[in-house]
Amino acid sequence: MKISIVIPTKNEERSIKEIIEQCNPYGDEILVVDGHSRDLTRDIAQEAGARVVLDNRGGKGDGLRVGLKEAKGDIIVFIDADGSHDANDIPEIIQPIIEGKADLVVGSRMRGGSDELHGDIGKFIRIIGSDIITLTINYRFGVRLTDSQNGFRAIRKDVGLKIGLKEDIFTIEQEMIMKTLKHGYKIMEIPAHEYSRKYGDSNIVVWKVAHRYVWCLIKNLF
């Protein structure tokens, strides 16, 4: 099975080369889906050997859908461009799919630890919200997941295309889990540590998007 590693980006010129170099040993293709960066992200990514395509300016969810469509591999690995994930975990994430044990594998920060989910009131609210969403998904679908929000994950390309993803922002991560379960596919988790992003600040402003997470949860539960 061929592996495509998809890296959604926007203004990540300081970190993108390092991420590509870390991912290179583990994929047959590195695909950077760029959100119309205003810096040198695309140029640096191409120089580092990645194939670069543009999203439709819709946000991270739009970028993931473009990645699913454009990637050539049978298994798609999504990894963020900010250095928060360890590319050395990629073999462990894809192995259950290769063995036919799972169709979607999520790197769990609750099992592997996180440097981004603790330390201030914003992070506290974020982790409480994530836990509530994950708990709701567990009771609705009869599973025992620990992390529904982490962007570090792998999915069979045919499954990713079939389940009909619609969300444009970060809510696509919980949508992907719920729709995978609704279609009867299998999900597994592996422990994956989340590191602090190396440059800049997170694009998530919790109080601005909280209602979108709630609405995404409600409309995809049934």
Number of strands: 7
Kindly report the name of the CATH homologous superfamily.
Spore Coat Polysaccharide Biosynthesis Protein SpsA, Chain A
Structural Rg: 16 Å
Helices, by number, come to: 9
Instruction: Please identify the top-level CATH class.
Output: Alpha Beta
User: What value does the average pLDDT take?
Assistant: 94
Gap from first CA to last CA: 33 Å
Helix content percent band: 40-55%
Here the CATH topology equals Spore Coat Polysaccharide Biosynthesis Protein SpsA, Chain A
Short description:
This protein is of the alpha/beta class and 222 residues long.
What topology emerges from the helices and strands here?
Elements: E1 3-9, H1 16-23, E2 29-34, H2 41-47, E3 51-54, H3 60-70, E4 75-78, H4 90-98, E5 104-108, H5 109-112, H6 121-141, E6 153-156, H7 157-162, H8 172-182, E7 187-191, H9 206-221
Parallel strand pairs: 1-2, 1-4, 2-3, 5-7
Antiparallel strand pairs: 4-6, 5-6
Helix pairs in contact: 6-8, 6-9, 8-9
